[in-house]
């Protein structure tokens, strides 16, 4: 059996749980291993986010899911945006919840598990003004409203692999109060988000733990089964220099597994693997939730994927709605060659189940 495949006679998805040894995942109450192997479907090739087209161009979503399945994925990471779901600190947009139900039903049909990552503020212009005007506790309360509503939709489906509280949250590190909830942009998008503007003398991990507890409590009010994690930058590890404040061994208690974003650099594959090992020492399963040959060549990246198997229990790359065949037909570019190399590798590098 390879990764999360089930016998052909049973087409139903089974809820994913943590293995009894705490090192990976299994299907339901069995000891059948489940190895997440899939994609971040965070945007289209033209930069549009899911909520920009999932109502008006639903066939694009269907074709993307079918293609990811054809490529060999068993899980897809979806990035839900705050502004698409919250109309006020206490009111959730029903039309977005309806589309989320539709997405989950599509995943069930395609037999793809979902990593539902929430609270995105990737496009600054789409973040509601009222949301940025909230203070820390008010913002956390609104975020809890988001997660409680999403969990009500997701709780009945075994297709929901996990809830990821936020992509790359950060606690401010200095004593000076911040004025902006968003981190620096990358390609016109803001993937890093601060959970506080002012430490107020509090230890950074204490703030992170409080925020995690607030959101996990909201989820557990309505869903006691689905796994919960949070998307950690690799500079979350404690040490000198830039850190996120989400020190893995100090914030992991309420999380079911750790999700790390790790992009190996040219000539530094060993360094990336050492970082991964430090996350694994926490004692919970570790999923490499974002990775890509962005800073190294494809051969180094292939080596990284193979060698990371000793510490990681799952992997997510990227898919942006363009097929391998379509990339080959387009005008060559560095970016397209990079993505084509990745998709070709994805089809052959899927880890076996011991």
Task: Write structural notes for this entry.
There is one protein chain. The protein has twelve helices and 13 strands. It is of the alpha/beta class and 354 residues long. The chain has one domain (16-348): Glycosidases (TIM Barrel). It has an eight-stranded parallel beta barrel with strand order 4-5-6-7-10-11-12-13, surrounded by five helices. Strands 1-2-3 form a three-stranded antiparallel β-sheet, with no helix packed on it. Strands 8-9 form a two-stranded parallel sheet. Strand 1 and strand 2 (25-27) form a beta hairpin. Helix 4 (94-110) crosses helix 6, helix 6 (136-154) packs parallel to helix 7 (204-220) and helix 9 runs parallel beside helix 10 (298-307). The longest helix has 19 residues, at 136-154. It is globular. The termini are close together.
What brief labels describe this structure?
13 strands, TIM Barrel, three-stranded antiparallel beta sheet, alpha/beta, 354 residues
Brief account:
The protein has 354 residues and is an alpha/beta fold. The chain has one domain (16-348): TIM Barrel, CATH 3.20.20.
């Amino acid at each position: 059996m390879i990764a999360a495949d089930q016998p052909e006679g049973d087409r139903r998805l089974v809820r994913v749980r943590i293995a009894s040894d705490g090192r990976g995942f299994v299907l339901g109450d069995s000891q059948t291993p489940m190895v997440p192997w899939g994609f971040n479907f965070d945007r289209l090739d033209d930069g549009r986010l899911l909520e920009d087209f999932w109502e008006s161009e639903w066939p694009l979503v269907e074709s993307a899911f079918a293609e990811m399945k054809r490529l060999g994925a068993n899980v897809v990471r979806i990035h839900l945006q705050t502004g698409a779901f919250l109309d006020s600190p206490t009111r959730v947009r029903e039309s977005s919840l309806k589309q989320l139900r539709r997405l989950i039903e599509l995943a069930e049909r395609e037999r793809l598990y979902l990593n539902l990552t929430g609270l995105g503020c990737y496009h600054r212009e789409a973040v509601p003004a009222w949301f940025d005007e909230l203070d820390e506790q008010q913002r956390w309360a609104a975020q809890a409203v988001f997660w409680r509503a999403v969990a009500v939709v997701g709780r009945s489906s075994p297709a929901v692999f996990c809830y990821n509280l936020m992509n790359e949250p950060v606690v401010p590190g200095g004593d000076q109060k911040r004025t902006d909830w968003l981190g620096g942009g990358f390609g016109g998008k803001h993937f890093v988000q601060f959970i506080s503007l002012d430490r107020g003398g509090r230890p950074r991990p204490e703030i992170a733990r409080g925020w995690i507890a607030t959101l996990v409590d909201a989820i557990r009010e309505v869903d006691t089964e689905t796994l919960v994690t949070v998307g950690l930058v690799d500079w979350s590890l404690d040490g000198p220099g830039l850190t996120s404040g989400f020190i893995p061994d100090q914030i992991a208690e309420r999380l079911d597994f750790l999700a790390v974003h790790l992009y190996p650099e040219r000539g530094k594959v060993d360094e990336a693997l050492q970082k991964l090992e430090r996350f694994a020492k926490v004692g919970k399963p570790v999923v490499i939730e974002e990775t890509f040959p962005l800073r190294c060549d494809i051969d180094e990246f292939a080596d990284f994927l193979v060698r990371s198997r000793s510490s990681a229990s799952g992997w997510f790359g990227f898919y942006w709605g363009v097929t391998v065949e379509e990339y080959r037909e387009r005008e060559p570019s560095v970016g397209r060659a990079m993505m084509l190399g990745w998709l070709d590798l994805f089809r052959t590098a899927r880890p076996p189940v011991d």
